[in-house]
Amino acid sequence: MGQFQGVLKRYFFAQTLPFDVGGQARFGEAAKGGGEDELPRQAAALLPILRAQKQPVVLVGHSYGGPVIVQAAIDYPQYVRGW
């Protein structure tokens, strides 16, 4: 997270709020019949941060964060301006 925060500060000229989903996703679990709720669960973890913002936000995700932010945009469109 620390290295990524430096990238955000250097290249993005807007307020950034880094968020760590707290552990790695269980890749392949859905294919085995489990983990179907993983993306919605992790997207829901963003909800308190989204609600605290004064206006809709642009979400940016890296690696597995990409699908997480897309899920958040689908589930909570009222808080998201773009992704």
Q: Which structural class matches the secondary elements? A: mainly alpha
Helical residue percent band: 40-55%
- As a whole number of angstroms, the C-alpha radius of gyration is 13 Å
Shape, principal axes of CA atoms: globular
Q: How are strands sequenced across the largest beta sheet?
A: 1-2
Question: What is the count of DSSP helices, taking H or I runs of 4+ residues?
Answer: 4
pLDDT averaged residue by residue: 79
Which stretches are low in confidence, meaning pLDDT under 50 for 5 or more residues running?
A: none
- Count of beta strands: 2
Describe the structure.
The protein is mainly alpha-helical and 83 residues long. 42% of the residues lie in helices and 6% in strands. The chain contains four helices and two strands; from the N terminus they run αααβαβ. It has helices at residues 2-11, 38-45, 47-52, 65-75, and strands at 57-58, 80-82. Strands 1-2 form a two-stranded parallel sheet. Helix 2 (38-45) crosses helix 4. The two termini are 20 Å apart. The model has no long low-confidence stretch (mean pLDDT 79).
